[in-house]
Amino acid sequence: MNFKPIILVAGEPNSIFFEIFFKVFKNKKIKSPLILIASHKILSLQMKKLDFKKKVKNLDLHKIKDYKLDNNSINLINVNYNQKKAFEKISNKSNKYIKECFEIAIFLIKSNFSNKLINGPISKKNFLKNKFLGITEFLAKKFKSRKVAMLIYNKDLSVSPVTTHLPLKSVPKSINKKLILEKVFLIDYFYKTYIGYKPKIAVTGLNPHCESISKINEDEKIIKPAIKNLIKRKFKVSGPFAADTIFLKKNRKKFDVIIGMYHDQVLTPIKTLFEYEAINITLGLPFLRISPDHGPNEKMMGKNTSNYLSLYKAISFLESVK
User: Fold this and answer.
1) Within a 13 Å sphere around the CA of 46, how many CA atoms are in the beta-carbon half?
2) Would you say 116 and 7 are in contact if contact means Cβ atoms under 8 Å apart?
3) What is the mean pLDDT of the chain?
4) 201 strand-pairing partners
5) How confident is the model at residue 53 (pLDDT cuts 50, 70, 90)?
6) Is the four-CA dihedral 125, 128, 134, 135 of positive or negative sign?
């Protein structure tokens, strides 16, 4: 297989990303060239702090196609960031730096240098400033992708929320038949294209036990009609199922993907089941974007105790596709 370079945007400089990045290098053999977009200064400070030694190869962005790349060293596109210590408190100070890192990655993707992107954790509160619900939506706007979906992927079972980072009070009014159909279309296409088969999909209801004591019952008026429409179109979709029982072993083993109506409805059980063995894939972009399934994790910065498995799973998945 011809391994295309994988671009890694380190994200928030004050996070556990470099720690798990170092651990991947220490413990795993990676065939695809990795190109890190980050601050050389922060990288060096954290290498010293975390006792990790490896050569750093500084790349010239405008000569990027001329390099013969491997992973004998860290392939770095430097973005300047002024910080004196290896770790500081997360603040708005890093916003401009993170934005520049993403702009370089977007340039490399749009110039067809790579179609594979991994981004490290971002502080949504600081970087996105309520302009976007998440990096999924941030990148969707950059590439003018109108239909996107968040898929937390594991080869045994994946999940996808219809709504993403919304407060619970905003979820009911945000759900509609068209949105449910769009998510199923994207998931079905992804599985057929990259995994190699048509997925069996379960859809949860919104209300406990798919019942509502109010006059408005989203399960009856929105979710059931959407599922009937999808079945008519020959998609392997079932539901709505009560969210409190669909993840029981005898139920979940019947499906490849479970679609929920809101973020924690499906992300809480998937993280309980698989912990670090799941990756966040954005569907609907003109390239493959994956985020390891964790945040900046300020409480664990510099302790060298973070699990690197999710980042490795993200790299491993991108190596498996062209």
Assistant:
1) 25
2) yes
3) 92
4) 237, 257
5) very high
6) negative
Distance, in Å, from the CA atom of 145 to the CA atom of 284, rounded to the nearest integer, reads 7
Q: Are residues 136 and 161 in the same domain?
A: no
CA distance 312 to 125: 26
Strand order of the sheet with strand 279-283?
56-58, 74-78, 34-38, 6-9, 116-119, 288-292, 279-283, 149-153, 158-161, 257-260, 201-204, 237-241
Interval 100-123: pLDDT, tens? 999 999 999 999 999 999 999 888
The count of domains in the chain is: 2
Q: Which domain holds residue 252?
A: 150-279
Same structural domain, 210 and 124: no
DSSP 192-204: IIIISSPPPEEEE
Residues sharing a CB contact under 8 Å with residue 105, sequence separation 6 or more, in sequence order: 7, 9, 37, 117, 119
Nearest-angstrom CA–CA distance, 307 and 310: 8
Q: At 132, is the pLDDT very low, low, confident or very high (cuts 50, 70, 90)?
A: confident
Q: What is the pTM of this model?
A: 0.89
Q: Are residues 28 and 140 in the same domain?
A: yes
34 bridge partner residues: 6
What value does the mean pLDDT take over residues 49-67? Answer: 94
Residue 293: pLDDT band with limits 50, 70, 90:
low
